[in-house]
Amino acid sequence: MSEFKVHHRDGDGFSVIELKGYLDAHTAPDLETTFQELLGDKKFNIVVNCKDLTYISSAGLGVFMAYIEDVRKNKGDIKLTNMSPKVYNVFDLLGFPILYEIYKDEAEAVNRFKQSRKV
Amino acid sequence: MAKILKKTILSDTDNLLEVREFVSAAAREFGFSDDETSKIALAVDEACTNIIKHAYKNRPDKTIQVAILRHPNKIEISIIDEGEKFDPETIKPLNLKDHLSHYRRGGLGVYLMRTLMDQVEYHTLSGKKNEVRLTKFLEPLRSSTRR
Predict the structure, then answer these.
(1) A92 at interface of B, judged by CB pairs closer than 8 A
(2) Alpha carbon distance B91, B112 (integer Å)
(3) Sorting pLDDT into bands at 50, 70 and 90, what band is B147?
(4) ipTM of this model?
(5) Looking at the domain assignment, is residue A34 inside a domain?
(6) What global pTM score does this model have?
(7) Alpha carbon of B104 to those of A61, A94, B55, B84: distances in Å?
């Protein structure tokens, strides 16, 4: 049985995806579906809260890579937050901090979206 | 003499968790740290995912044999499939910055395996079987043998 959950909630001008459990080749399609729904609804300011994410493989990381270009073309972004050291290490090994803004907590990422709207 | 643990799974991604748990338990028992165990499990996941996706073209009804060989100074994980042969020479060393700047999605699995493990070897076995062998040395021996 898959122990992976994706939950999404909307704020004022941004959306938060909460990940729970393990994100591998088996569960990555669930995250893809969520991204497809958000982009279909023209929601391009996306925070991914990884507080309860216990594991990620390149299949999971590939989902972020699949959507980041479209999101940024539409003046949005995918910001990642609340990673455990174990999960962050995998992102770091693949150089993700070069491409993605990674924050310690969700509030910081939300604040960045709010600040960029004021500019 | 190496102690061998074996498990055979079907090539369904639903079985990746089982393989990770199998490998993690063995690595932990062998004395690898939590951090090292995580790396080993992730490397095995990446290898199995590649087999499912590329060797077996996502067919879920094929078999993947995972064997863990525990030597006094290292752990070797042999992963065998009967699908399409993978030629590691076709995978050039990844330039991460270039790869990411072009938003390329694939190709990260092999890079991760090579980064996480001390040795990654590909062999063709008799009976049209393919093997990827992942090796990790116990801490004190790693710096002199890594390639």
Answers:
(1) no
(2) 12
(3) very low
(4) 0.93
(5) yes
(6) 0.91
(7) 11, 12, 21, 23
